TrEMBL record:
Residue ranges of every copy of the EF-hand domain listed in the record: 1-35
Record protein name field: EF-hand domain-containing protein
GO cellular component: muscle myosin complex
GO molecular function, a single term: calcium ion binding
Matching Gene3D superfamilies: EF-hand
UniProt cross-references to InterPro entries, sorted A to Z: CALM/Myosin/TropC-like, EF-hand-dom_pair, EF_hand_dom
Species whose genome carries this gene: Onchocerca flexuosa
Keywords: Motor protein, Myosin, Repeat
Superkingdom, natural source: Eukaryota
């Protein structure tokens, strides 16, 4: 799974330096199969990257963001399901 995620991550590495632009964090997470909102991505990354070139991040920096968002996805669906029941 990690190798697949890294492969997806590297597809967005435009400068071939092993990093993606901070503005692409959400795009890469979505390409990996999650569907977070922009607000969720900003919360998970701790920063809102508005301008391309502002900061580039490594796969190792991106993985905790992906992991947090994957947990939030489970929580979101659990809360939605429970609200439909009650």
């Amino acid at each position: 799974m990690i190798a697949e995620l890294k492969e997806i991550f590297l597809l967005y590495d435009e400068e071939l330096d092993g990093k993606i632009d901070g503005t692409q964090i959400g795009d890469v997470v979505r390409a990996a199969g999650l569907k977070p909102t922009n607000a969720m991505v900003t919360k998970a990354s701790g920063t809102e990257y508005k301008r391309k070139g502002e900061k580039r991040i490594t796969f190792e920096e991106w993985m905790p963001i992906y992991e947090q968002l994957s947990k939030e996805k489970v929580q979101f669906f659990h809360n939605t399901f429970c609200s439909l029941l009650f």
